[in-house]
Design goal:
- The complex is a heterodimer of chains A (385) and B (665).
- Chain A has helices at 2-9, 15-21, 24-44, 53-72, 75-80, 82-99, 120-137, 141-144, 151-166, 170-187, 191-211, 214-224, 235-247, 258-261, 273-306, 310-334, 352-370; strands at residues 101-103, 106-112, 116-118.
- By secondary structure, chain A is mainly alpha-helical.
- Chain A has one domain.
- Chain A has a three-stranded antiparallel β-sheet with strand order 1-2-3, with helices on one face.
- The longest helix of chain A has 34 residues, at 273-306.
- Chain A is globular and about 60 Å long.
- Chain B has 665 residues and is an alpha+beta fold.
- Chain B folds into three domains: 57-243, Penicillin-binding protein 2a (Domain 2) (Alpha-Beta Complex), CATH 3.90.1310.10; 250-471 and 528-664, 3-Layer(aba) Sandwich (Beta-lactamase); 476-516, no CATH class.
- Helix content of chain B is 41%, strand content 17%.
- Chain B has 27 helices and 19 strands.
- In chain B, the strands form six sheets. In chain B, strands 2, 3, 4, 5 and 10 form a five-stranded mixed β-sheet that branches. Chain B has a five-stranded antiparallel β-sheet with strand order 12-11-19-18-17, sandwiched between helices.
- In chain B, a hairpin with a 5-residue loop joins strand 11 and strand 12 (276-282).
- In chain B, helix 14 (326-335) runs antiparallel to helix 23 (535-550) and helix 15 crosses helix 23 (535-550).
- The N and C termini of chain B lie far apart (143 Å).
- The chains are: A mainly alpha (385), B alpha+beta (665).
């Protein structure tokens, strides 16, 4: 049988072989993104490694070790524990709901002694993809066509999304929901079903509007004409656009951006770090970082296509699209194309939770790459082994 | 088909769709970036620059006010304030702790502490908050020594207006105070915290000249407004120095001379050039209280004072001139064909219809001519003359003498007095004029009202040879008109500057022009118009005024100058008080003593010296002091003696005569 054939070509790999199979180019690309981030954090602190860049570098080093280790774990083990991981991160979200510290008008964090704060919703974005990949892996194309099998994954998506919306964290909710939808699409759910959901959603939008926080409503409204209210909600967008525009083609020079350094830019080391890059390195710098991101996405896409098991394909593609959501939402937000929803720029923004989550996602992708030739049966058993 | 193959195929197709979508979105974002950073870059760069750069005003130092000899009347002194910066105070446990320590060094009441704490909450952490002002040097040094223990506390040196002569100068110089809503003219300087503007007197009249122009400091600020660094600085122009015609020594002497009077005013002026050498109004107030910030209680005390310390009586007090008015009536008689020998018999009264008009001397003066009528102040002679000349012709002469019209002195609050005419009564009162009223006007009573300054001007115009002299308080201020407003560009060029000069050069030239005025040697006199009176007529009135002081029966013979070779002329006046002034009524005077005082007659005197070459005119009004010869003439004598001494007309040996003639007077 065909499966047997694959198995013959794919005996169990040794550790050394696995290390050899790690996609080191992707590792390097991630490192470059983090490097850009460290540079901007250094500038945001007015040319100082403290308080951000130094701390972020330490985190990166620890996380990259973790990333490599996770990449080497047998993909079937990942598959076996996918739901457990999902449940664990979901429980963390519940903990936030129960006794989270309040920060920035939203309860998003839990305090961990000696380490600091952690935002479980970041990790949730990738554990959701993991769980959905596990779920859809076992379904045939025909199975996916049945309505009843979609109930469980829909709940998997809905539960964390609603919790996150309650925090309230619109940005993360969009990424979670979007990531879920992407997994549905990739798994082969028929297009008309999406159309039905979309129409229903549009019809329900007035209800959603009424449930939104006043500050969120204001942000959406101000988006339509941010310059009308320069000191109110539109202030952040306007200042961000000014900084970007002032950067011009080549920027005002490293650590020389007046908008950033005179604090006209809000949260310049986190959500608005792209603006700072735009001010100090101009269009050239922005396009360079965006190209880096695009190359990473193409790599992720390639890895997904290259995988010979559905689990790996879904996992890699789900992670890379989730990653791209981060990128697009953040950049569009700071350019004033979409409302300010509070989402970091992956790998570049200061902050441990997002870095951990994104590197976890890349670890999964790298894991898929290492095990790209492994064929896995419906129930997760490696055929014949 | 292999179900897994189908799954993989669907996956590949859909994943490719996503990849394409991602690339498209990335391209879209890139295009948006291109729009922001290339097409719109210039606009945003400008906005960023506007964000970053802030212009701050630098308040110019206010110009000084000096007297004719250069003595300082209004200056700026350093004002030490203690300020607290919240963010720096954190090091010592917050501002509460720091204030507690500070209270042990200087006097801080609970009210102040509460105010500072409240202010600290509403201000940004780096904004200094003023804790206390007007610190003594002792307080300053105590804080200085303990500075290491007081993080966030520092001494700030500001400027405050100071008037070294205090209340002796208050009415002339005026005072400055905080800018009020109605002072705002759009000049951004006025919105500087702590800025003071002139509120009265010369301070107000020449406020624009004294103020100067603001400088600007171009600073880089952050989003909270904290100054990061100064990029450029443009110093402003300090305010102009204003030189008064006043002689501080005379002013002080006069004020001291009046210090026992309840309410009085004196004006001394040069009869030729109009220089006002002294202008005193008592009671007065301390202008320093205003620049330091006057308390509500203190202000109420001033407002409620029945003697009106806030009113400059020399220009805003309107009094019936009484017999001092007779000099004007005498001139009106001469100008209207009545000669000095015009003879009237005074039986002590004059009858008009069925009414009797009394002379102040009940038994009568007997036969009077113009000189004796002036000398003895015979009312009957003037009733007769007034009846012959008529009120309208008297009014015409009075206006030419400066009565009934504003003198346009460079001070606010001047009142124009009143010289009645038939038309005036018809228009204002809607009643016809009665002949009896003409008689009353003839002795300076009735409707006639004059200010002490007007009386001095009247005297000056009679004795200076017929020039329509106008009083002035200040020497010309380069670039500013007598009205205190800046002159237009062309007029400014006349004072030694030219078109080609830069603004800085113009200022230097103008300042030099101002500095070159030496009031002690400057003989240039403003060209005044002729009053058009016949010189002989003026000479006759002057002789009559000579007789008032130096004649055997003169009403002011006891107040002759105690100099061997210099004499003064003048005219006494006693004006009836008919009405209680509004200020008095408001003050609610009820005690018997006060009522008696306010019903008494005003004592007046107008005079000049020396008689043979008149140079200085004086007018004195002592409210409710009864006789002009008894209460006002001696003041005029002392003041004229002092001005002659100060200006070098009389030598020091006059002192020796002092006791001699003093006994006789």
């Amino acid at each position: 049988m065909a499966l047997r054939h694959g198995e013959l070509r794919q005996p169990e790999m040794t550790l050394g072989q696995k290390i050899w199979q790690i996609n080191w180019i992707m590792f390097l690309l991630i490192g470059m993104c983090v490097g850009v981030g460290l540079g901007m954090q250094y500038s945001a602190a007015n040319g100082s490694w403290d308080p951000w860049a130094h701390s972020q570098l330490t985190k990166y080093l620890v996380f990259s070790l973790g990333m490599l280790i996770l990449a080497l774990v047998d993909i079937r083990i990942l598959m076996r524990y996918a739901y457990i991981v999902y449940i664990l991160s979901f429980l963390l979200l519940v903990v936030v709901e129960i006794k989270g510290a309040v920060g920035g008008g939203a309860t998003r964090w839990i305090a961990i002694p000696f380490i600091g704060t952690f935002q479980p919703s970041e990790l949730m974005k990738f554990t959701l993809v993991l769980a959905l990949a596990r779920y859809f892996h076992k379904l045939s194309y025909e199975d996916v066509g049945r309505f009843s099998v979609l109930i469980v994954p829909a709940l998997l998506v809905a539960a964390p999304t609603l919790l996150v919306l309650r925090q309230p964290d619109l940005g993360t909710a969009i990424v979670l929901c979007g990531g879920g939808v992407v997994m549905f699409v990739l798994a082969g759910v028929r297009w008309w079903k999406f159309a039905v959901v979309a129409i229903t959603g549009l019809a329900a939008s007035p209800l959603i509007w009424s449930m939104m926080h006043p500050y969120q409503k204001r942000r959406v409204l101000v988006l339509l004409n941010p310059e009308s209210d320069p000191l109110g909600s539109g202030y952040h967008i306007l200042q961000s656009k000014i900084a970007m525009g002032a950067g011009g083609l080549v920027g005002r020079g490293f650590t020389k951006g007046s908008q950033s350094h005179l604090n006209f830019l809000p949260e310049k080391q986190t959500d608005f770090i792209f603006t700072m890059l735009a001010e100090e390195f101009g269009l050239i710098g922005c396009l360079a970082l965006m190209s880096l991101y695009l190359v990473l996405m193409v790599y992720g896409f390639g890895i997904a296509l290259r995988s010979r098991n559905q689990f790996g394909r879904l996992l890699a593609m789900g992670c890379i699209v989730t990653f791209s959501f981060y990128v697009f939402i953040n950049i569009a937000m700071v350019m004033g194309v979409i409302p300010v929803v509070g989402l970091p720029l992956p790998l570049v923004s200061y902050g441990g939770s997002a870095l951990l989550a994104v590197m976890f996602g890349f670890a999964l992708i790298m894991n898929v790459y290492v095990h790209r030739d492994l064929r896995i049966g419906r129930q997760g058993e490696s055929n014949g082994l | 088909m292999n179900p897994d193959k189908t799954k993989a195929k669907v996956f590949t197709r859909r994943a490719a769709l996503f990849m394409g979508g991602q690339t498209l979105v990335m391209g879209g974002l890139g295009a948006r970036l291109y729009y922001l950073q290339v097409l719109e870059s210039e606009r945003y760069a400008m906005l960023a620059e506007e964000n970053r750069i802030n212009f701050r005003l630098i308040g110019p130092p206010r110009g000084f006010i000096v007297d004719r000899g250069g003595d300082y009347l209004a200056i700026n002194v350093q004002n030490y304030r203690v300020v607290l910066v919240r963010e720096q105070a954190q090091a010592a446990g917050g501002i509460e702790a720091v204030l507690e320590k500070l209270a042990k060094l200087i006097d801080l009441n609970e009210h102040t502490v509460a105010r500072v704490l409240k202010e600290a909450q509403s201000r940004l952490a780096f904004v200094p908050i003023t804790v206390a002002e007007n610190l003594s040097w002792r307080d300053v040094s105590r804080i200085g020594v303990n500075q290491p223990d007081l993080p966030g506390v520092s001494i700030d040196v500001g400027q405050i207006r100071h008037y070294p002569y205090g209340e002796n100068m208050a009415h002339v110089v005026g005072y400055v105070a905080a800018v009020s809503e109605k002072d705002l003219t759009g000049d951004p300087l006025l919105e500087l915290p702590g800025f003071r503007v002139g509120k009265n007197g010369i301070e107000k009249h020449y406020d624009l000249a004294l103020r100067g122009t603001s400088g600007t400091s171009k600073v880089e600020v952050n989003a909270l407004g904290r100054v990061i660094r100064e990029i450029d600085r443009q110093e402003g122009q300090p305010g102009r120095e204003i030189r008064l015609t006043l002689d501080m020594r005379l002013q002080e002497f006069t004020a001291n001379r009046l210090k026992d009077e309840k309410a009085a005013s004196v004006v001394v002026m040069d009869v030729h050039n109009g220089d006002v050498l002294a202008l005193v109004s008592v009671p007065s107030f301390d202008p320093n209280a205003f620049s330091e910030g006057i308390g509500a209680a203190e202000w109420q005390k001033l407002v409620k004072n029945p003697y009106g310390p806030l009113t400059n009586k020399a220009i805003a007090g309107q009094y019936a001139p009484g017999s001092t008015f007779k000099v004007a009536v005498a001139l009106a008689a001469l100008e209207n064909g009545i000669d000095e020998d015009h003879s009237v018999y005074c039986p002590g009264y004059m009858e008009l219809g069925d009414r009797r008009f009394h002379c102040w001397k009940h038994h009568g003066h007997g036969r009077m001519d113009m000189i004796t009528a002036l000398e003895q102040s015979c009312d009957v002679w003037f009733y007769d003359v007034a009846r012959r000349v008529g009120v309208d012709r008297i009014a015409q002469i009075c206006n030419r003498l400066g009565l009934g019209v504003p003198t346009e002195i460079e001070m606010l609050g001047e009142r124009s007095g009143l010289i009645p005419t038939r038309k005036w009564k018809r228009d204002e009162r809607g009643q016809p004029w009665h002949m009896g009223e003409t008689l009353v006007v003839g002795i300076g009573q009735g409707f006639v009202l004059t200010t002490p300054l007007q009386l001095a001007v009247m005297t000056a115009r009679i004795v200076n040879g017929g020039k329509a002299v106008r009083p002035r308080m200040t020497f010309p201020v380069p670039g500013f008109g007598l009205d205190g407003k800046p002159l237009s560009e062309e007029v400014q060029l006349e004072d030694g500057t030219s078109e080609e000069m830069s603004p800085e050069q113009k200022l230097v030239a103008a300042t030099e022009a101002a500095g070159s005025i030496n009031p002690l040697t400057d003989t240039t006199r403003p060209d005044f118009e002729d009053t058009g009176f016949h010189p002989d007529h003026l000479e006759i009135v002057l002789r009559g005024m000579d007789a008032v002081v130096n004649g055997v029966h003169g009403t002011a013979r006891k107040s002759a100058l105690r100099f061997a070779d210099l004499t003064m002329g003048g005219k006494t006046g006693t004006s009836q008080v008919r009405r209680i002034s509004q200020a008095e009524r408001d003050a609610g005077i009820r005690s018997g003593d006060d009522i008696a005082w306010r019903l008494r007659d005003h004592a007046l005197f107008v005079g000049f010296a020396p008689v043979h070459n008149p140079r200085y005119a004086v007018s004195v009004v002592v409210e409710h002091a009864e006789g002009g010869s008894r209460a006002a003439a001696p003041v005029a004598r002392d003041v004229l003696e002092e001005v002659l001494r100060l200006q070098g007309f009389a030598t020091a040996d006059a002192k020796a005569n002092d006791t001699e003639t003093g006994g006789a007077g």
